[in-house]
Amino acid sequence: MGWESVRGRGGTRERTGERRPVWSGGDLSTAVALATAQLPTAGLLTFIDLSGRDDYGAGNGGALGAVFLLFLAPVLLPLLGVAQAFMLALPSVVAARLAGRRLGGPSWPWYLVAPVVPAAFWSALVASLGSWPFTSTFAVLAGLGVLPTLGVGWVRRRALRPAGVWWWAAAGSFGLAVLTLVGGVLASEAGLVPQYEPPRLTAAQLTGVWRDGSGAELRLHADGSAEAVKLPTEPAAFTDDDFSDYVVCAGPGTWAPRRTWRDGVLVELDGDCGRDTQWSVGGSEDAPQLFVLFGDPDAGTLRILERA
């Protein structure tokens, strides 16, 4: 026995002949279809947002990575849709049906707010691992869970066939992605999406202490001398370290402002540890940074120093 819709004074709600919440194969198919359909638009919105931020030297490497992902999309998108369905949509459906059965009222508000439950769980887990902050992760996951969860309730009430759901999901996904792409281009041309410009720092502004959260420290003195503590540095050529993205060095050295594709500083440490390393300026005028992207632009190691 499954869930069915009934109408009453409180509006449309669901009831079940079973004592525990379950989902059917049709629910799973709907959740996967709608979860997959929203991913192209979500990816475009992410790309538009990142275009206004510092890419930390990824540049063409990041673009090549995006092209590679485009070729993998026919396989990758359905897999991500399945993951979303099991992690977000179906737990949200269970939560919505439990709330509707115990508290009553129209069913659609419960479907609307239910994604906050699994989103909070996964966000707390991710935050505990130190990967991403809870707030932004929660907002993204809750947003991704809303459409598939509402869709499961809507499709079930209307008893639509899975094939029809996939057809309309594919058509809607294509149309929404096109609108998002056109809107993003127009917004960029109109200046509504500002393009990132790294700050330009004078030698006096570069002078000072720069640190990261891993114990690395770089002291730049006004006389051109430098001191390094646990500083990541370009590995020396033709050594065993040449196979590593970077080596950690310490000791005195010198520095000088350098400009290649953006402002930066060239740090030369004394001794035979590593070699000269170009640190580029990033961040903003109020919160400048020095960074190096070691190794491959697509899969290298990014190290960022902030003013102490």
UniProtKB/TrEMBL annotation:
Transmembrane helix keyword on record: yes
Chain segments annotated as transmembrane: 28-48, 68-96, 108-130, 136-155, 167-187
Coiled-coil intervals, chain numbering: none
Key words of the record: Membrane, Transmembrane, Transmembrane helix
Top-level division of the source organism's lineage: Bacteria
Compositional bias of kind Basic and acidic residues: 11-21
Keyword Transmembrane: yes
Region annotated Disordered, chain positions: 1-23
Name of this chain's protein: Integral membrane protein
Species, as recorded: Streptomyces sp. 900105755
